[in-house]
Design goal:
Length: about 180
């Protein structure tokens, strides 16, 4: 169904805002998926603060050129029946969800490319990003590695008075 010029302008503005406000975006081909399967994907993505939108390719290309030049690497992938996953939250967790869905529906859903922090990423790079632990796990590992030396020093320093008390108790026991 044809869209009016004003509807296309409104869509272009909305898409430009989506591309600009997102941390990352993933372009995927969805040909052959049923509405129920797309809804399943959208529900999974909502958990990671992301959304899957099916676009009009020409309008999306214009929106990227005019409103979100950082996403210009995606223009060449906007052909055929594609949709874009707009990621507002944790990019690694969302990439994992999208790639898991792509593995389930490998004949119908194919990840083409993406963009993260203004850098173009391929499907293989997205796979590598998806294999990373979540942001919270990485932060806890960093904190753990920062705290570990302090715990060791504290154990050594606490061991000196403990050993002194044990020596004094041993001397007391030998005199009794």
């Amino acid at each position: 169904m044809a869209m009016s010029r004003s509807a296309k302008k409104a869509l272009k503005t909305a898409l430009g805002g989506e591309f600009s406000s997102s941390n990352a975006a993933i372009v995927a081909e969805y040909a052959g998926l049923s509405m129920a399967e797309l809804t399943e994907l959208r529900v999974k993505l909502r958990e990671t603060d992301a959304q899957f939108k099916i676009l009009k390719n020409r309008v999306a290309k214009v929106a990227i050129k005019e409103d979100a030049p950082d996403a210009s690497a995606l223009i060449e992938h906007l052909n055929g029946p594609v949709g874009v996953v707009f990621i507002k939250g944790d990019a690694a967790a969302t990439a994992k969800s999208v790639l898991d869905f792509a593995k389930e529906k490998k004949d119908f859903f194919k990840v083409k490319a993406g963009i993260m922090d203004g850098q173009a990423v391929t499907a293989a790079e997205l796979d590598a990003i998806a294999s990373l632990p979540s942001r919270e796990v990485l932060l806890s590992q960093i904190v753990g590695s920062l705290v570990a030396p302090h715990k060791g020093i504290m154990g050594v320093l606490n061991g000196i008075p403990r050993q002194l008390v044990q020596v004094i108790n041993a001397i007391k026991d030998t005199k009794n």
